Every structure is written in C-alpha cells, then in structure tokens.
From TrEMBL, chain A:
This is Chemotaxis protein CheA. It comes from Fulvivirga marina. Pfam families: CheW, H-kinase_dim, HATPase_c, Hpt. It is an enzyme of class 2 (transferase). Residues 133-168 are annotated as: Disordered. Coiled coil: none annotated. Signal peptide: none annotated. Involved in the transmission of sensory signals from the chemoreceptors to the flagellar motors. CheA is autophosphorylated; it can transfer its phosphate group to either CheB or CheY.
From TrEMBL, chain B:
It comes from Fulvivirga marina. It holds the Pfam family CheW. Residues 20-167 form the CheW-like domain. Gene3D superfamilies: CheA-289, Domain 4 (2.40.50.180), SH3 Domains (2.30.30.40). This is Purine-binding chemotaxis protein CheW. One of its GO terms (biological process) is chemotaxis. GO terms for cellular component: cytosol. It comes from the Bacteria. Coiled coil: none annotated.
Amino acid sequence: MSKEEEYKEIFLAEALENYEELNRLLTQLEKSPGDKKTINAIFRITHTLKGNAAGMGFKNVSDFSHILEDLFGEAREGKLVLEDSIFTTLFKALDTLGKLINAIKDNKAVKFRGIKTKMEVLLRTTKNEALAKSSGEEKSVEDNVSPANDTSVEEDSIFDPLDEEPENDNSKISFSDLVQVPVRKLDNLLNLVEELVIERDRIIASNSGVVKTNEYTRLNRISSDLQYSVMDVRLVQVGFLFNKFHRVVRDAANLEKKKVGLVLKGTETEIDRNILQIISDSLIHLIRNSVGHGIEKPEIRKKNNKKEEGVITLSARSESDAVIIEIIDDGAGIDIDAARKKAIKQGLISPDDANQLSDNEMVQIIFEPGFSTMNQVTAISGRGVGMDVVKKALDSIGGNISVDTKKGIGTTFSLRLPSSMAVKGTLLFELDSETFAIPLSYTKAVVSLYKPDIHKVANGLVSTYLGNIISIVFLKDILDLTVYRPNSLHKSFNEVHPEKKLDIVIVSYNNRTIGLVVDKLLQQKEIVEKPLMRPFDKVKLISGVTIMGNGHVCLVLNVAEISNLIFSRNFSTKNALSI
Amino acid sequence: MLDQEKHEAKTVETEQLVASQQLIVFRQGDEEYGIHIDQIKEVVLTPNITKMPQTRSFVKGVANIRGNIIGIVDLEEKFGLKEATTTAEANEANNYTLVIESEDYKVGILVTEVPNTLTIKSSNIEQSVNVIHDNNLNSDYIKGLVKLDNRLIILIDIFKVLDEPELETLAALEDAKSQ
C-alpha cells in the first residue's frame, strides 16, 4: 500500500471515530442544551476534524466541519441559542458529514450544499444579531464550489430544499478498516517475538554440528519476517507528534513576545511509537528553548537585517537504522563566550580547562546538569533544568544529541534516534570469560595496541588514535570497581605482559573518545535488548541484557555511563555499588 | 529426612487446620531458613549465572530462567555463613535455585539441597525476636523464629534482605573518604 493510501486509511478511521463521537455528544447535548462541557467537546472535535481533513486535502469535509466548528463556537459564547429546530438541522448536518467522510472511500456523490447553506445562513444571522455586523468576512458559498480531488460531488443548486436529499442509506452502519490496539498489547507481542527469536538462535546454536545449516533457512526467514512485521506495526509517523508543535511554538512565542514560524519537514518519517513518546518531552523542551534562547526579539532581528519573524525548522529523516531529527532556528546562536564564563562561574569547569576547550567542545557544556545561559528566569526557559534531562532521555534509548551553532546565524540541535527499540546492532566481546555486548552506535573502531603504546597520565591511561590522544581504560578495572582508590585504573595495566596484544574497542560519547581494553573481540550481532529489572535497575554501567543462543545472559554496556564515570569529577568519593 | 518431614507436616496439618501456615524450608550453612510458600515461584537447577558489575558480593549475578532475567543471591554469604565466592565458583557448584516472587520482581536464592515444605502452627512462630546484631543495621528481614521440636527455623523476608545496606560497603566508603 502506498504511503498516501495508508494516510488516507488512518484519516478515515479517525474521522469516522470523530463522527461517532459527535453523534453521541450531540444526542447528549439535545437532552441538556445548556451543557457547556459538551459544547466545548463538540467544538474541539470539529476543529480537529477540520484540521485533519484540510491537511489531507479533503476540502468538502474540511469546509463542512469548519462551519460546524463556527456554529459551535458561537454556541460556546452563548451567541447561538440551541433550540429544538436548530438540533434538527444539526443532526441532518452531522449525517451529511458522515456521508462526506464515507464518500472519500467509495467516491459516492453526496449532496451537501443545501444543508451547508442552511448552516451558513444560521451562522450569519447569529453573527448579525449578536454583533450587528456585516458578514463580509464570511466565506462565500461560491468559493467552495471546487470539489475535492478524491470525491466527485455532484453539484446541486445552492437553493435546493433540504427535504429532497435521499435518506435511504441512513441506517447503514459503517465499519472502519482499521482496528485500534493498545500499545500494551503490542509490547507484549513484541516481547513474545523477541523470545521466539532468542529461542530460534538457541536451537540453531545447539544443533549446529548435527543438522545442515540450511535446514533452518525457512524458520529463520519466517521468524525474521514476523519480527519485522511486528516492529513495523509499532512504527508511527513523526508528523503525529510534529503537528502538535505549532501550538507549542505559538504559545512560547506569545509569552516571549516574539514572532516565530514553524516549518515541518519529513513528517512522514517513521519511528517506533515508544521512542517517539520518550522523546516528546525533550522535543517540546528543545523547541521552547529555540524560541526562548534562539530566536531574537523582532526589534533586534530588524536591526540585524533579518526578517522579523524567526523560523524554527523541525525536520526528520531516516538514515540506515536511525532517525535523525533536527531542530534548526535562525536565531542568534549560542553565545559561546557567555557559556564559557557561566560554566566557570558555576564551577562546572575550571578556568584553565575552559580556555583550552575549542568552541565546539565548549558548546557541549549546555548538556551538563545545572547549566543555563539565560540570566533571567522566564516561564519557558532559563530554569537550568532541561538540556541535561534531554540528554538523559536520549541516553536511555541509545540515541544521542549534538549541537551546532553559528553566531548570528542560528543553532541546530541534531538528535539521532534508533528507529526501533527492538533490535540493536552490537559488537560482542569477551571479558573474564563472559560475553558482553556494546552498541554499534557508540563504537568507532577496534584496534590492537601493545603495552608500550599506552602511557600512565595522572590516575588514568592514554594512548593515541588517528593522531588524537584518547583515554584508555581496562574495562575490567571499571566493572570490578567497588570503591575508588587512586590508581584503580592502573591495576590491570600493571599486570599486563608487555608483549601481549591488547584488543581495544574505541567508543565515543559526547565528543569524548575512550578505548576500552577487552579480553577478546567476538563478532557483530543484532540483539534484542531487555531492560534491567529490579533489583538491578540501579546498575548504571549496564543498560540491559540479552539472552544468547546458549541460554546465557549477556550484558549490554552503557557507554554513556561508563564515559560519565571516567570523566566525572566526583569520582573519588562516590560509592560505585548500586545494590 | 524428607519422608520424616513430610510425615511431620501431615500430622501438624491435621491437628491445626485453622491457624496453620505453609513454609518452604531450606538449609543455609548449618541453619534452617523458612520463607512463606506464597512467595515461592519454583525450584530449578541453577542455570549459568552472569556476573553483574556494581553489585555487592553476595549478589552472584543474573541468570535466564524460562526467558526471565532473574538476579541470583547467595544468602550463606550474605549471612556470613561462608567465605565470599566468585560468580565462576558459584557456577561450578551445581546446586538449586529457589525462585522467589514479589509484586515487583523475582529473585533466586542458591540452595544446596532441594527445599522442603513444612506446615506449622502460627502459634509456633515467635514474632518478637531478640537477636544480637549490629546497631547500624536493622534486621527487619527476620520475621520470626519457628520452634519445632529440636528444630529452629529462621523466618525471613527475602526482599528486605536485599534492601539492607551492607556493612562492609559502609566501612569501605568511610575508608575511601578518609583517604
């Protein structure tokens, strides 16, 4: 099915649901016409329906809901008194709306001009009565004559009496082609598929010598297809989330007295629903941040020869197994010198360090907890919480965030997210005769070094990789760490034989590159990661586990936390034990 | 041994049906420990245990039990009934694992012998227990002592055991601070 078809199907399902809900609410309203809550609910639904239909290009449905929305808008403000006679019209209008929605599917002709005009007249009279104002701004009926692309609507005379409309198919109940499934059920389904895949790998591994490998080709294919189908069901378009941000931008801009427009790109990009949910707060924060910190006030923009209205672009695109979401503003850019001063003042970094860091390294400081460049605390930004929370949210799903800023031109936040939670590409290695996995998203390279290549510097170890100095850590030292003592990280290094070849996995997180010394590199493998449950949920260095073909548990390293542990300044007083 | 216990359990059961409780009794060191049968999920042969970093020594690691990832603990080590062992050593000593289930999570206890069930009268449980213990720790996890003929069974709440802070850790922390 083409993308367009799929959207149409989703729209229809939602629209029909809206229609059913409107029917229910209107019936309720008829019984108690003064109920503001019901009127509000109807107003909201018609508004949503109008927006969705307009977005899909179904002009008839959109226009029709627009009028309904206007009518209930008036009713909401008490200008339109809902009498019995009006309800007759409203119900008839609702039936017509239902037919218009169905017409998108079956291309049936629907006569709707008459009832539409009647409502428009009703609306005009109400407005005239209430405001004694001409209805010049009203959309003239003639504007709406062009039929929508997917519906062939027979045009009948504007003054057709309503009674002529055939009522024959009123009794037909329409069924949507979509079913709604709670995410909980999908999660369960995915869990089962994951277990199936693990079990498949186990059986194949245990029979590897006995049976020909192609014996399992079909099993492999079917279970893989099943896995990907289930994952596919969980995918949603980022547009569902992105569209909500128009309001976020508007509210934030109003509050800050700025003019900001939002441009959406790549809204059809698909991503796992749970990932979208996890990052939704982060995106809201980043967007508010762009409005608050990024876009300048109109007068300043004018002075700098920019358009008064700032633009925030929210774009999404797929890149192999990742989804990249970018928040781009054309604002002032991050003031790196101010950030540097602030960081020193807040004691996040020493003045010496601060002056040594390049601008690009310095700007990453905004992700440190407790950092904010805004001197004034405003309602939407400058509270000093947020960026580090954004970072944590991304770490939790194995994504990452980077920032690129140019003074006077703007700032781009770039989020790299896994498109699916289920399968992770990892590199397997052995340490202390146990197998570990490290996500490929953090892995840069694997190299071999000998003891003389590595040097002790202060309490740590360093070496060079591609001309850059990188930290070297014997992973064993970190995992065995219970309480930090000086030179803890030299322990394995001191014991190692000078001629032993050391396998090193080079990982990168937050612009920090670390070489992790492991015992033996194994292969690359796609794994299904399960989160750690109590009582291990406080174990930081491990992000989750997976079950190997032999039934053993394999730990998945949390590179973000390992990096934080190594570079954390409070290292020495922290107790490394979690439970 | 097993038969004798079963026999005992049966006689007790018939005598006191009303206020009776069923326990799972397992040996740790030379002592017998008891856990309420409601908390026990199953007894399995101990699967391969994977060591988990950042955990205390008596936490032996995690294992895959019927697709569930379950933490495995060595209570003998926790209660100071034996010297600390490594996960590798725990893997070699091929014994049983008692899987305990709470609302929140599951945990496995390493046992050397298959545990037995035992029905006791509620009146056999001595609730207020005076045990000598370190003031810094609370021994909330001891729910009571069961006196039965010549036997003494220590009734424990395994989940409180896991919540208790470890003495050696505290000492080590002090050590690190003073450096």
